[in-house]
Amino acid sequence: MRVLSDNDVDLVPKAVFAVAISAFVIEDFEGRTTAPPRVAVDFPTGKLVFTTGGSENLAGFRAYETFQSKARSDENQIVVVWDTKSCALKGACFGVRLGALRTGVLGGLAVKLLRLEKLVPAPLSEPDCRPKLSC
Predict the structure, then answer these.
(1) Which residues of 60-88 are buried (b: 16+ CB within 10 A; e: fewer)?
(2) Which residues contact 133 (CB under 8 A, 6 or more apart)?
(3) CA angle, 79 as apex, 77 and 82 as ends, to 5°?
(4) Cα(93)–Cα(129) distance, integer angstroms
(5) What are phi and psi of 8, to 5 degrees?
(6) Residues contacting 27, CB < 8 A, separation 6+
(7) What are the φ/ψ torsions at residue 108 (nearest 5 degrees)?
(8) What per-residue confidence (pLDDT) applies to 70?
(9) How far is CA 49 from the centre of its chain?
(10) Sequence ranges of the domains in the chain
(11) In this predicted structure, what is the pLDDT of residue 67?
(12) Quick one: how many helices (H) and strands (E) in the chain?
């Protein structure tokens, strides 16, 4: 099992994130993932928020807080991942970088797919699965 921090995440080539997230998006399109809605636990000063999900080989969760503290920590999130075949805990990541990279890569992938939307003729697309674009 590996435990990573934001510094460790910054050392990983960004292409690794792009490949992993692209693969997950394809698995999701094929109906091979699970990602139920996030769950929040309310406290007087904020919330603990949990997201869970995975695919055939990996499962995990992310937890973060929304507490109203003036002394915010850069380590206010944790991501934990298990191998669903071996049941081994694969790793944990503390910090905020992984979430920011995930969001950025998803945004980049969305832009790429929207550009392809304009390049692919309609008969080659799957109209029931594609959003209608007005741009």
Answers:
(1) bbbbbbeeeeeeeeeebbebbbbeeeeee
(2) 114, 117, 118
(3) 165
(4) 34
(5) -65, -45
(6) 33, 55, 56
(7) -65, -40
(8) 66
(9) 14
(10) 2-121
(11) 87
(12) 3, 6
Is this prediction's pTM over 0.85?
no
Confidence of residue 130 (pLDDT cuts 50, 70, 90): very low
> Residue 109: which residues within 8 A CB-CB, separation 6 or more?
18, 21, 22, 25
3-class secondary-structure state, position 85: coil
User: From residue 74, how far is each of 28, 67, 87, 97, 130 by CA, in Å?
Assistant: 30, 13, 30, 9, 38
Assign residue 29 a region (left: φ > 0; alpha: ψ between -120 and 50; beta: otherwise).
alpha
d(CA 33, CA 53): 7
The predicted-structure confidence for 31-75, as pLDDT tens digits, reads as follows 999 999 999 999 999 999 999 999 999 999 999 998 877 666 666
Q: How many CA atoms lie within 13 A of 81 on its CB side?
A: 17
CATH of 2-121, one of 3.40.50.1370, 3.30.565.10, 1.10.569.10, 3.30.1780.10: 3.30.1780.10
Task: Report residue 42 as tokens.
Answer: 């309310």
Instruction: Locate all alpha helices (DSSP H) within the chain, ordered by sequence.
Output: 6-11, 14-29, 97-119
